[in-house]
Amino acid sequence: MTIDDVIMRTGTTLGVLIVTAALSWALLPVDDANISRSYGIGIGAALIGMVLAFVQSFKRKASPALILTYAAFEGVFLGVISSIVDNRIADGAAMQAVIGTMAVFAGVLVAYRAGWIRVNRRFYGFVMAAALGFILLMSVNLLFAVFGGGDGLGFRSGPLGIIFGVVGIILGACFLALDFKQVEDGIAYGAPREEAWLAAFGLTLTLVWIYMEFLRIISILNSSD
Fold first, then answer.
1. Which residues, other chains included, contact 65 with Cβ-Cβ below 8 Å and sequence gap of 6+?
2. How far apart are CA 128 and CA 147, in angstroms?
3. Exposure b/e, 26-45, CB count within 10 A at least 16 = b
4. Residues 89, 216: contact at Cβ < 8 Å?
5. Residue 80 pLDDT exceeds 70
6. Distance, CA of 121 to CA of 167 (rounded, Å)
7. Is Transmembrane included in the keywords of this UniProt record (predicted)?
8. In whole numbers, what is the pLDDT of the chain averaged over residues?
């Protein structure tokens, strides 16, 4: 595995995601007459993407077809949700979220290369524990929202939503550092070329996470206007 392998496969994976996101944005209208259908398609695509991501995560070997299929379905979801926020809540939100995601990626990359971020066992343990706690809280909030109605416990709306969104971005930045460490170690230890697909998969998951947190914060800020 080389850095060129990682760049090429990450570019391919993100390319598939971006193309399907653009197509779903263009082909699935979010006006009052069509938003329910488009949103349903987006959620369905997200659920399929989630299943595919779990399958790949538990596989011992990278499956390029599985990773690219995940990217395609995730792109459909991102296209729909981005279109809804951009067209109905905050004009330009999608581009702002993209810029924010790119800024976090560049910042973490510079900090990692400069040695300001040191990824060791303690760092890994802290990030995984924090991520587990974050996901559990969000899951509980979702359950309360589904069965109790409204915003659940309020973790994803209002001031608390903004705070948790920032925490989510920070966690995403930490996962980027873990991704960079994985790439660095893979190259150093001469990992097989197909391992570059796993690196691409991890980077894509993290970038999608960060993008969604930015989009959520932008949505909350504009909804409160």
1. none
2. 28
3. eebebeeeebeebbebbeeb
4. no
5. yes
6. 21
7. yes
8. 92
- What mean pLDDT is predicted for residues 105-117? 95
The 3 state secondary structure assigned to 131-180 is: HHHHHHHHHHHHHHHHHHCCCCCCCCCHHHHHHHHHHHHHHHHHHHHHHH
Report the pLDDT value the prediction gives residue 150, as an integer from 0 to 100.
62
What is the spatial distance between Cα 127 and Cα 170, in angstroms, rounded to a whole number? 10
| Encoded amino acid at 106, one letter | A
Give the residue from 19, 7, 12, 3 showing the smallest Cα distance to 64.
12
CA atoms 4, 204, 134, 158: torsion sign = positive
pTM: predicted TM-score of the whole model, two decimal places: 0.93
Between 158-188 and 93-113, two packed helices, what is the crossing angle to 10 degrees?
40
CA 119 to chain centroid: 21
**For residue 54, is it left (φ>0), alpha (ψ between -120 and 50) or beta?**
alpha
- Give the residue extent of every domain in the chain: 3-223
User: Are 12 and 72 spatial neighbours (Cβ–Cβ below 8 Å)?
Assistant: no
